[in-house]
Specification:
The complex is a heterodimer. Chain A is mostly beta strands. Chain A has helices spanning 2-15, 17-20; strands at 35-42, 48-52, 58-61, 73-76, 81-87, 90-96, 103-111, 115-123, 133-139, 147-151, 156-162, 166-172, 176-183, 190-196, 202-209, 214-220. In chain A, a hairpin with a 4-residue loop joins strand 10 (147-151) and strand 11 (156-162). The relative contact order of chain A is 0.15. Chain B is globular, with a radius of gyration of 16 Å. By secondary structure, chain B is of the alpha/beta class. In chain B, helix 1 packs parallel to helix 5. Helices cover 33% and strands 15% of the residues of chain B. Classes of the chains: A mainly beta, B alpha/beta. At the A-B interface, helix 2 of A face helix 3 and helix 4 of B.
Chain lengths: 223, 221
Amino acid sequence: MQRTIRLLPIILLGQFPALAHAEPHLYETGPVEKASYLRFVNATGNDLTIVSSSGQVRIQLGIKDATRATNFFSVKSGEELSATIQLKAVKRKVTVSGQPWENITIVVLPDGPKRVKTSVIKETPTDFNAMRVSLALFNLDEGCATALMQGGSKRATILDQVQPFSVKRRLVNPVKLTAMVGCASDDQMRQVDFEQLQAGERYSVFLLNDDKREQAFFVRDSN
Amino acid sequence: MSLLLAGLTVLVIGDSHLATPGYLVDTLHDELRNQGAKVYSYGACGIPSGAWMEKIQPPCGSAFHLDDGKTRVRDGEAGTTVPLPELVKKHHPDLIVVVNGDTMSAFNDPVLPRNWIWQEVGTLTKGIKASGASCVWVGPAWGNEGGKFHKTFARTREMSAYLADIVSPCVYIDSLKMSKPGGWDTLPGDGQHYTPAGYQSWGAAITQVIVSPEVLNQIKH
Protein backbone atom coordinates (compact mmCIF):
# COMPACT_ATOMS: atom_id res chain seq x y z
CA MET A 1 0.00 0.00 0.00
CA GLN A 2 2.83 2.28 0.98
CA ARG A 3 4.50 1.65 -2.37
CA THR A 4 1.31 2.43 -4.27
CA ILE A 5 0.97 5.81 -2.61
CA ARG A 6 4.56 6.75 -3.40
CA LEU A 7 4.21 5.77 -7.03
CA LEU A 8 0.94 7.55 -7.63
CA PRO A 9 2.35 11.05 -8.31
CA ILE A 10 4.94 9.64 -10.69
CA ILE A 11 2.31 7.72 -12.63
CA LEU A 12 0.05 10.76 -12.75
CA LEU A 13 2.79 13.05 -13.95
CA GLY A 14 3.78 10.54 -16.60
CA GLN A 15 0.25 10.21 -17.90
CA PHE A 16 -0.63 13.89 -17.85
CA PRO A 17 2.32 16.05 -18.84
CA ALA A 18 0.10 19.07 -18.27
CA LEU A 19 0.23 18.46 -14.56
CA ALA A 20 4.00 18.18 -14.61
CA HIS A 21 4.25 21.55 -16.32
CA ALA A 22 1.19 23.22 -14.88
CA GLU A 23 2.60 26.39 -13.41
CA PRO A 24 4.50 29.03 -15.37
CA HIS A 25 7.56 30.56 -13.77
CA LEU A 26 7.31 34.08 -12.45
CA TYR A 27 7.76 36.72 -15.16
CA GLU A 28 7.49 40.47 -15.49
CA THR A 29 4.00 41.82 -16.16
CA GLY A 30 5.30 45.15 -17.38
CA PRO A 31 8.27 46.73 -19.10
CA VAL A 32 11.71 45.67 -17.95
CA GLU A 33 12.84 49.30 -17.96
CA LYS A 34 10.88 52.56 -17.77
CA ALA A 35 11.44 54.83 -20.73
CA SER A 36 10.90 58.40 -21.84
CA TYR A 37 10.66 59.54 -25.45
CA LEU A 38 12.73 62.40 -26.78
CA ARG A 39 12.66 64.40 -30.02
CA PHE A 40 14.15 67.62 -31.37
CA VAL A 41 12.41 70.35 -33.38
CA ASN A 42 14.24 73.02 -35.31
CA ALA A 43 12.36 76.34 -34.94
CA THR A 44 15.21 78.43 -36.36
CA GLY A 45 15.72 79.67 -39.90
CA ASN A 46 18.87 77.59 -40.42
CA ASP A 47 19.83 73.96 -40.81
CA LEU A 48 21.07 72.39 -37.56
CA THR A 49 22.99 69.36 -36.44
CA ILE A 50 22.27 67.51 -33.19
CA VAL A 51 25.24 65.56 -31.86
CA SER A 52 24.84 62.93 -29.14
CA SER A 53 27.00 63.18 -26.01
CA SER A 54 29.15 60.30 -27.26
CA GLY A 55 29.62 62.08 -30.58
CA GLN A 56 28.62 58.92 -32.42
CA VAL A 57 25.14 60.01 -33.49
CA ARG A 58 24.60 63.09 -35.65
CA ILE A 59 21.17 64.16 -36.83
CA GLN A 60 20.54 66.85 -39.41
CA LEU A 61 17.47 69.06 -39.04
CA GLY A 62 16.31 71.16 -41.98
CA ILE A 63 13.98 74.12 -42.30
CA LYS A 64 11.33 72.65 -44.58
CA ASP A 65 8.26 71.37 -42.71
CA ALA A 66 8.76 67.78 -41.47
CA THR A 67 12.56 67.95 -41.90
CA ARG A 68 12.47 70.26 -38.89
CA ALA A 69 11.58 67.42 -36.47
CA THR A 70 13.11 64.09 -35.49
CA ASN A 71 11.13 61.00 -34.54
CA PHE A 72 10.86 60.22 -30.85
CA PHE A 73 13.84 58.32 -29.47
CA SER A 74 13.33 55.96 -26.56
CA VAL A 75 15.63 56.86 -23.65
CA LYS A 76 15.98 55.58 -20.11
CA SER A 77 13.75 57.63 -17.83
CA GLY A 78 15.26 59.49 -14.90
CA GLU A 79 18.71 59.56 -16.47
CA GLU A 80 20.29 62.89 -17.36
CA LEU A 81 20.90 63.06 -21.10
CA SER A 82 22.84 65.64 -23.00
CA ALA A 83 23.43 66.57 -26.61
CA THR A 84 25.08 69.37 -28.50
CA ILE A 85 23.27 71.58 -30.99
CA GLN A 86 25.43 72.93 -33.80
CA LEU A 87 24.46 75.88 -35.95
CA LYS A 88 27.39 76.48 -38.26
CA ALA A 89 30.30 77.19 -35.87
CA VAL A 90 28.08 77.85 -32.86
CA LYS A 91 27.52 75.05 -30.35
CA ARG A 92 25.07 74.82 -27.50
CA LYS A 93 24.74 71.99 -25.02
CA VAL A 94 21.29 70.85 -23.87
CA THR A 95 20.61 68.55 -20.91
CA VAL A 96 17.31 66.90 -20.05
CA SER A 97 15.84 64.03 -18.06
CA GLY A 98 12.36 62.56 -18.28
CA GLN A 99 9.74 60.93 -16.10
CA PRO A 100 8.53 57.44 -17.07
CA TRP A 101 6.52 57.43 -20.32
CA GLU A 102 6.92 61.16 -20.79
CA ASN A 103 7.18 62.63 -24.31
CA ILE A 104 9.83 65.34 -24.40
CA THR A 105 10.12 67.82 -27.26
CA ILE A 106 13.32 69.89 -27.25
CA VAL A 107 12.74 72.99 -29.34
CA VAL A 108 15.72 74.82 -30.80
CA LEU A 109 14.98 78.55 -31.21
CA PRO A 110 16.81 81.52 -32.67
CA ASP A 111 18.60 83.70 -30.14
CA GLY A 112 19.60 86.66 -32.22
CA PRO A 113 21.06 86.23 -35.70
CA LYS A 114 23.82 83.74 -34.87
CA ARG A 115 22.95 81.95 -31.64
CA VAL A 116 20.37 79.42 -30.55
CA LYS A 117 18.50 78.68 -27.34
CA THR A 118 16.27 75.79 -26.32
CA SER A 119 12.90 75.24 -24.73
CA VAL A 120 11.63 71.89 -23.45
CA ILE A 121 7.97 70.86 -23.72
CA LYS A 122 6.93 67.76 -21.80
CA GLU A 123 3.68 65.81 -21.89
CA THR A 124 2.59 62.41 -20.59
CA PRO A 125 -0.17 61.45 -23.01
CA THR A 126 -2.99 59.14 -21.99
CA ASP A 127 -5.33 59.60 -24.93
CA PHE A 128 -4.17 56.60 -26.98
CA ASN A 129 -6.92 55.29 -29.23
CA ALA A 130 -6.65 53.16 -32.36
CA MET A 131 -10.03 54.20 -33.75
CA ARG A 132 -9.55 57.96 -33.44
CA VAL A 133 -6.85 60.52 -34.17
CA SER A 134 -4.81 62.47 -31.63
CA LEU A 135 -4.14 66.02 -32.78
CA ALA A 136 -1.74 68.27 -30.87
CA LEU A 137 -0.89 71.94 -31.29
CA PHE A 138 2.53 73.11 -30.11
CA ASN A 139 2.97 76.88 -29.84
CA LEU A 140 6.68 77.52 -30.49
CA ASP A 141 6.23 81.24 -31.18
CA GLU A 142 7.11 83.19 -28.05
CA GLY A 143 5.50 86.25 -29.59
CA CYS A 144 2.14 84.53 -29.82
CA ALA A 145 0.24 84.71 -26.52
CA THR A 146 -2.35 82.14 -27.55
CA ALA A 147 -2.29 79.89 -30.61
CA LEU A 148 -5.31 78.19 -32.11
CA MET A 149 -6.29 75.62 -34.72
CA GLN A 150 -9.53 75.68 -36.66
CA GLY A 151 -10.89 73.25 -39.20
CA GLY A 152 -13.68 72.32 -41.53
CA SER A 153 -15.79 74.52 -43.79
CA LYS A 154 -17.17 76.39 -40.79
CA ARG A 155 -13.70 76.83 -39.28
CA ALA A 156 -14.71 75.20 -36.02
CA THR A 157 -12.19 75.58 -33.24
CA ILE A 158 -10.24 72.36 -32.71
CA LEU A 159 -7.67 73.63 -30.21
CA ASP A 160 -7.16 77.08 -28.72
CA GLN A 161 -5.59 79.00 -25.85
CA VAL A 162 -2.23 77.31 -26.43
CA GLN A 163 0.35 79.43 -24.65
CA PRO A 164 3.98 79.81 -25.80
CA PHE A 165 6.06 76.66 -25.36
CA SER A 166 3.13 74.53 -24.36
CA VAL A 167 0.96 71.93 -26.05
CA LYS A 168 -2.71 71.03 -26.13
CA ARG A 169 -4.04 67.81 -27.57
CA ARG A 170 -7.43 66.28 -28.36
CA LEU A 171 -8.98 63.28 -30.07
CA VAL A 172 -10.80 63.82 -33.36
CA ASN A 173 -12.39 61.49 -35.88
CA PRO A 174 -10.33 60.18 -38.81
CA VAL A 175 -11.67 62.61 -41.40
CA LYS A 176 -10.18 64.55 -44.30
CA LEU A 177 -8.95 67.77 -42.74
CA THR A 178 -7.43 71.05 -43.77
CA ALA A 179 -6.76 73.14 -40.67
CA MET A 180 -6.01 76.82 -40.22
CA VAL A 181 -3.37 77.47 -37.58
CA GLY A 182 -2.24 80.78 -36.19
CA CYS A 183 -2.09 83.25 -33.39
CA ALA A 184 -5.39 84.38 -31.87
CA SER A 185 -4.28 88.02 -32.11
CA ASP A 186 -3.34 87.70 -35.79
CA ASP A 187 -5.84 87.66 -38.65
CA GLN A 188 -3.47 85.74 -40.88
CA MET A 189 -3.78 81.98 -40.41
CA ARG A 190 -1.52 79.31 -41.91
CA GLN A 191 -3.04 76.39 -43.77
CA VAL A 192 -2.07 72.88 -42.70
CA ASP A 193 -3.39 70.17 -45.01
CA PHE A 194 -3.47 66.72 -43.41
CA GLU A 195 -5.44 65.22 -46.29
CA GLN A 196 -6.98 62.09 -44.76
CA LEU A 197 -6.29 61.74 -41.03
CA GLN A 198 -5.47 58.11 -40.25
CA ALA A 199 -7.19 56.31 -37.36
CA GLY A 200 -4.75 55.44 -34.61
CA GLU A 201 -2.20 58.02 -35.73
CA ARG A 202 -0.93 60.87 -33.58
CA TYR A 203 -0.14 64.21 -35.19
CA SER A 204 1.81 67.19 -33.86
CA VAL A 205 1.26 70.61 -35.41
CA PHE A 206 3.94 73.21 -34.74
CA LEU A 207 3.39 76.96 -34.98
CA LEU A 208 6.69 78.81 -35.08
CA ASN A 209 8.34 82.05 -36.07
CA ASP A 210 11.90 81.58 -37.28
CA ASP A 211 12.59 85.32 -37.22
CA LYS A 212 11.75 85.47 -40.90
CA ARG A 213 8.10 84.52 -40.92
CA GLU A 214 5.43 82.67 -38.95
CA GLN A 215 4.74 79.20 -40.25
CA ALA A 216 2.99 75.98 -39.35
CA PHE A 217 3.61 72.36 -40.25
CA PHE A 218 2.75 68.92 -38.96
CA VAL A 219 4.50 65.61 -38.33
CA ARG A 220 3.18 62.21 -37.39
CA ASP A 221 4.45 61.24 -33.96
CA SER A 222 6.42 58.07 -34.38
CA ASN A 223 9.17 56.22 -32.57
CA MET B 1 -22.08 20.17 -33.55
CA SER B 2 -22.02 23.49 -35.42
CA LEU B 3 -19.30 24.20 -37.94
CA LEU B 4 -19.44 27.97 -38.05
CA LEU B 5 -15.70 28.26 -38.74
CA ALA B 6 -15.60 25.62 -41.47
CA GLY B 7 -13.18 26.56 -44.21
CA LEU B 8 -11.29 29.08 -42.07
CA THR B 9 -7.69 28.80 -41.00
CA VAL B 10 -7.12 30.30 -37.57
CA LEU B 11 -3.76 31.31 -36.13
CA VAL B 12 -3.78 31.76 -32.34
CA ILE B 13 -0.88 33.58 -30.68
CA GLY B 14 -0.56 34.55 -27.06
CA ASP B 15 1.31 34.63 -23.80
CA SER B 16 1.62 32.21 -20.89
CA HIS B 17 -2.04 31.31 -21.19
CA LEU B 18 -1.04 29.42 -24.31
CA ALA B 19 2.38 28.18 -23.26
CA THR B 20 1.49 25.17 -21.11
CA PRO B 21 -0.38 22.00 -22.09
CA GLY B 22 -3.93 22.06 -20.79
CA TYR B 23 -4.13 25.84 -21.09
CA LEU B 24 -5.72 27.72 -24.00
CA VAL B 25 -3.14 26.17 -26.32
CA ASP B 26 -5.34 23.08 -25.95
CA THR B 27 -8.76 24.23 -24.78
CA LEU B 28 -9.27 27.19 -27.13
CA HIS B 29 -7.48 25.30 -29.89
CA ASP B 30 -9.83 22.32 -29.60
CA GLU B 31 -12.96 24.46 -29.33
CA LEU B 32 -12.03 26.32 -32.51
CA ARG B 33 -11.31 23.03 -34.29
CA ASN B 34 -14.69 21.75 -33.13
CA GLN B 35 -16.19 24.67 -35.06
CA GLY B 36 -14.58 23.35 -38.23
CA ALA B 37 -11.49 25.57 -38.42
CA LYS B 38 -7.94 24.52 -39.12
CA VAL B 39 -6.10 25.87 -36.08
CA TYR B 40 -2.44 26.66 -35.40
CA SER B 41 -1.71 27.84 -31.85
CA TYR B 42 1.50 29.34 -30.52
CA GLY B 43 2.16 30.56 -26.98
CA ALA B 44 5.20 32.36 -25.60
CA CYS B 45 5.27 32.80 -21.83
CA GLY B 46 5.77 36.27 -20.38
CA ILE B 47 6.09 38.32 -23.58
CA PRO B 48 4.37 41.58 -24.52
CA SER B 49 2.53 41.92 -27.84
CA GLY B 50 5.26 43.59 -29.88
CA ALA B 51 7.60 40.66 -29.29
CA TRP B 52 5.51 38.63 -31.76
CA MET B 53 7.04 40.67 -34.57
CA GLU B 54 10.55 39.42 -33.82
CA LYS B 55 12.49 36.37 -32.75
CA ILE B 56 12.88 36.36 -29.00
CA GLN B 57 13.53 33.82 -26.32
CA PRO B 58 10.60 33.99 -23.87
CA PRO B 59 11.57 34.15 -20.20
CA CYS B 60 9.51 31.07 -19.30
CA GLY B 61 9.19 28.86 -22.35
CA SER B 62 6.80 28.40 -25.21
CA ALA B 63 4.43 25.88 -26.75
CA PHE B 64 2.74 25.21 -30.04
CA HIS B 65 -0.12 23.05 -31.24
CA LEU B 66 -0.52 22.49 -34.94
CA ASP B 67 -4.08 21.60 -35.92
CA ASP B 68 -4.61 17.89 -35.15
CA GLY B 69 -1.07 17.35 -33.84
CA LYS B 70 0.09 17.13 -30.23
CA THR B 71 1.05 20.12 -28.12
CA ARG B 72 4.80 20.63 -27.98
CA VAL B 73 6.60 22.53 -25.24
CA ARG B 74 9.96 24.23 -25.74
CA ASP B 75 12.23 25.83 -23.16
CA GLY B 76 15.31 28.04 -23.38
CA GLU B 77 16.71 28.79 -26.81
CA ALA B 78 14.52 26.10 -28.37
CA GLY B 79 11.52 28.14 -27.26
CA THR B 80 12.45 31.13 -29.44
CA THR B 81 9.36 32.67 -31.02
CA VAL B 82 8.56 32.59 -34.71
CA PRO B 83 7.72 36.16 -35.84
CA LEU B 84 4.17 36.77 -37.04
CA PRO B 85 5.09 37.40 -40.69
CA GLU B 86 6.73 33.95 -40.83
CA LEU B 87 3.73 32.32 -39.15
CA VAL B 88 1.42 33.99 -41.66
CA LYS B 89 3.58 32.85 -44.56
CA LYS B 90 3.52 29.30 -43.21
CA HIS B 91 -0.17 28.93 -42.30
CA HIS B 92 -2.02 31.53 -44.41
CA PRO B 93 -4.58 32.35 -41.69
CA ASP B 94 -7.94 33.93 -42.43
CA LEU B 95 -8.23 34.87 -38.78
CA ILE B 96 -5.60 35.74 -36.20
CA VAL B 97 -6.59 35.39 -32.55
CA VAL B 98 -4.36 37.27 -30.11
CA VAL B 99 -4.57 36.42 -26.41
CA ASN B 100 -2.53 39.03 -24.58
CA GLY B 101 -3.07 41.39 -21.67
CA ASP B 102 -1.70 40.16 -18.35
CA THR B 103 1.94 40.39 -19.49
CA MET B 104 1.54 44.12 -20.08
CA SER B 105 -0.65 45.00 -17.06
CA ALA B 106 2.28 46.03 -14.83
CA PHE B 107 0.62 44.82 -11.65
CA ASN B 108 3.62 45.98 -9.61
CA ASP B 109 3.42 49.53 -10.95
CA PRO B 110 0.95 52.04 -9.49
CA VAL B 111 0.42 53.54 -12.95
CA LEU B 112 -0.56 51.60 -16.07
CA PRO B 113 2.24 52.27 -18.61
CA ARG B 114 -0.12 53.33 -21.39
CA ASN B 115 2.52 54.74 -23.71
CA TRP B 116 4.53 51.48 -23.62
CA ILE B 117 1.44 49.32 -24.06
CA TRP B 118 0.34 51.50 -27.00
CA GLN B 119 3.63 50.84 -28.73
CA GLU B 120 3.64 47.11 -27.99
CA VAL B 121 0.08 46.67 -29.23
CA GLY B 122 0.63 48.95 -32.23
CA THR B 123 3.70 47.02 -33.29
CA LEU B 124 1.64 43.83 -33.48
CA THR B 125 -1.55 45.32 -34.97
CA LYS B 126 0.50 46.92 -37.75
CA GLY B 127 1.90 43.47 -38.53
CA ILE B 128 -1.57 41.94 -38.46
CA LYS B 129 -2.93 44.66 -40.72
CA ALA B 130 -0.12 44.02 -43.19
CA SER B 131 -0.97 40.30 -43.20
CA GLY B 132 -4.46 40.97 -44.55
CA ALA B 133 -6.03 38.52 -42.09
CA SER B 134 -8.99 39.35 -39.86
CA CYS B 135 -8.21 39.60 -36.21
CA VAL B 136 -9.73 39.32 -32.77
CA TRP B 137 -7.92 40.29 -29.59
CA VAL B 138 -8.81 38.44 -26.39
CA GLY B 139 -8.29 40.60 -23.32
CA PRO B 140 -7.38 39.43 -19.82
CA ALA B 141 -9.80 37.49 -17.64
CA TRP B 142 -10.44 38.33 -14.00
CA GLY B 143 -8.21 35.75 -12.32
CA ASN B 144 -7.93 36.25 -8.57
CA GLU B 145 -6.39 39.09 -6.61
CA GLY B 146 -2.93 38.65 -5.10
CA GLY B 147 -0.66 35.72 -5.83
CA LYS B 148 2.88 35.91 -7.13
CA PHE B 149 1.95 38.23 -10.03
CA HIS B 150 0.12 40.66 -7.71
CA LYS B 151 -2.92 40.70 -10.00
CA THR B 152 -5.78 42.99 -9.00
CA PHE B 153 -9.32 43.27 -10.30
CA ALA B 154 -8.99 47.05 -10.61
CA ARG B 155 -5.90 46.89 -12.82
CA THR B 156 -7.40 44.06 -14.86
CA ARG B 157 -10.52 46.16 -15.46
CA GLU B 158 -8.37 49.19 -16.39
CA MET B 159 -6.21 47.14 -18.75
CA SER B 160 -9.20 45.54 -20.44
CA ALA B 161 -10.88 48.90 -21.04
CA TYR B 162 -7.63 50.30 -22.41
CA LEU B 163 -7.06 47.38 -24.78
CA ALA B 164 -10.60 47.82 -26.11
CA ASP B 165 -9.55 51.33 -27.23
CA ILE B 166 -6.25 50.44 -28.84
CA VAL B 167 -6.42 47.02 -30.54
CA SER B 168 -8.28 48.09 -33.70
CA PRO B 169 -8.33 46.79 -36.45
CA CYS B 170 -8.70 43.70 -34.26
CA VAL B 171 -12.16 43.13 -32.79
CA TYR B 172 -11.84 43.23 -29.02
CA ILE B 173 -13.15 40.27 -27.03
CA ASP B 174 -13.79 41.25 -23.43
CA SER B 175 -13.03 38.25 -21.21
CA LEU B 176 -14.33 40.12 -18.17
CA LYS B 177 -17.88 39.56 -19.45
CA MET B 178 -17.36 35.80 -19.38
CA SER B 179 -17.31 35.32 -15.61
CA LYS B 180 -17.66 37.29 -12.42
CA PRO B 181 -14.45 38.46 -10.68
CA GLY B 182 -12.73 35.39 -9.21
CA GLY B 183 -15.30 33.18 -10.92
CA TRP B 184 -12.71 30.84 -12.41
CA ASP B 185 -10.31 29.10 -10.03
CA THR B 186 -6.65 29.94 -10.38
CA LEU B 187 -3.62 27.88 -9.36
CA PRO B 188 -2.71 28.16 -5.65
CA GLY B 189 -0.56 31.22 -4.96
CA ASP B 190 -0.72 32.33 -8.60
CA GLY B 191 -3.85 34.43 -9.23
CA GLN B 192 -3.23 34.72 -12.96
CA HIS B 193 -3.18 31.19 -14.40
CA TYR B 194 -6.21 28.96 -14.18
CA THR B 195 -6.96 25.41 -13.19
CA PRO B 196 -7.86 23.02 -16.04
CA ALA B 197 -11.53 23.79 -15.44
CA GLY B 198 -10.82 27.52 -15.71
CA TYR B 199 -9.03 27.14 -19.03
CA GLN B 200 -11.83 24.91 -20.27
CA SER B 201 -14.36 27.63 -19.42
CA TRP B 202 -12.25 30.42 -20.92
CA GLY B 203 -11.54 28.53 -24.16
CA ALA B 204 -15.22 27.70 -24.61
CA ALA B 205 -16.35 31.25 -23.82
CA ILE B 206 -13.87 32.83 -26.27
CA THR B 207 -15.03 30.49 -29.01
CA GLN B 208 -18.67 31.31 -28.34
CA VAL B 209 -17.92 35.00 -28.78
CA ILE B 210 -15.93 34.37 -31.99
CA VAL B 211 -18.79 32.40 -33.55
CA SER B 212 -21.45 34.89 -32.45
CA PRO B 213 -23.07 36.68 -35.42
CA GLU B 214 -21.77 40.02 -34.16
CA VAL B 215 -18.13 38.94 -34.37
CA LEU B 216 -18.41 36.40 -37.16
CA ASN B 217 -19.82 39.01 -39.53
CA GLN B 218 -16.77 41.16 -38.92
CA ILE B 219 -14.18 38.44 -39.44
CA LYS B 220 -15.51 36.32 -42.31
CA HIS B 221 -14.20 37.49 -45.66
